[in-house]
Amino acid sequence: MSTEKSQKESERIEKEIKHPLQHKWNLWFHQNEKSKLWEDSLVKLSSFDTVEDFWSLFNHIILPSNLPIGSDYSIFKDGVKPMWEDERNVQGGRWLINVRKHLKNSSLDDYWLETLLCLIGEAFDEEDNEVCGAVINIRKYTDKIGVWTSNSKNSESNIKIG
User: Fold this and answer.
1) What is this structure's pTM?
2) Rounded to whole angstroms, how far apart are CA atoms 24 and 84?
3) What number of helices (H) and strands (E) belong to the chain?
4) Contact (Cβ atoms closer than 8 angstroms) between residue 26 and residue 59
5) Rounded CA gap, 142 and 120, in Å?
6) 52 forms bridges with which residues in the sheet?
7) What is the longest distance spanned by two Cα atoms in the chain?
8) Can you tell me whether residue 25 is helix, strand or coil?
9) Do 37 and 15 contact (CB within 8 A), yes or no?
């Protein structure tokens, strides 16, 4: 068997073994740098579309509680940038959880993981299409976790998501 055929067969088997997600997701990182425009300091770190690839990524990144102040992680559906100017976000809103610093070590990482599992696990039922992604902001006094929605005027869906 040729090397090329062997590699294609391995890729086929790997796809059959992995558990696909409903959507492809992108992990973004932003570190506030005053010398750069906001968008210029936003970096797409990785993409994933299977359960196994999510865990591989999550287990190899710095946990939010260890990120420097002024930085953000964002996980958004493929094709949606983590900025309000993106066409999927421009009419949207967000649900926000404030996490005080005294809870940072005990709860922040757990809250973030639970949020991500809700996103990628399609836990919002019929409202899944209204969810664009989530952001965690690491700040001096209060960290924030936000779930971004695509239509702030869709009250019924937004209440269910929240």
Assistant:
1) 0.86
2) 20
3) 4, 6
4) no
5) 25
6) none
7) 60
8) strand
9) no
